[in-house]
Amino acid sequence: MRKASHKQTETSYLERATSLIRCSTPQTEQTVPNLPHSSINRTIRGVTRTMGYGNIRSVETSGASWQTAQQDRLGYSGERASHKMAETDMDRMSQYKSKIMRVGQRHGVDPALIAAIISRESRAGNQLKDGGWGDWNPQRNAYNAWGLMQVDVNPNGGGHTAKGGWDSEEHLNQGTEILVYFINRISNKFPDWSKEQQLKGGIAAYNQGDGNVRSYSGVDQQTTGGDYSNDVTARAQWYKNNGY
Fold first, then answer.
1. What is the per-residue pLDDT across 91-101, written as a single tens digit (0 to 9) for each?
2. What positions carry a catalytic annotation?
């Protein structure tokens, strides 16, 4: 599940996101705040259809960490473990395939990547509790995340309002818009990175916030399991080779 990100400041995420998109020059690390899972649907809508996000097949990956692989009690880690976990989720994923394909086409995001995030975040719904919730927070006495893509609803984290049913197309739209937002944030933060590197950085930011992505070599340094973008990339490559 997703780690809690930095607390919100007095300036709303929406205001900062709108300011970013209106800016015509690349943002530097000093001028790009850490925006975890902000409510940015309106600010990014309109750019998602025209921007390219790289080729998921060409993204470098080391796959799942040993910690992540133990979720399925696997005796190995790496790409092989990521592929096995993606395969394990395949039957459940098929229930949502038509929605995933439509959402991917709508936002210009590879459906295989959406499927991979669903696999990593909720095991295609298998890990969700109480009608679609995940990541229980005992301090809040509430869940932190909602739905197949585990949209962060923690007021001290992403601060999103859950949209649609936990497995609805509306929910997948929301999660994918958040992903696109972070890919764009990373692209502005690191304009010299390749499209594939920016894509991987955006995947990591979906989990940890863009402020915690400080270098390509340490892209997963702060992510859950220390492998989020590598594991998701490897799962996406498996789904890409298996009908998505």
1. 999 999 999 99
2. 121, 135
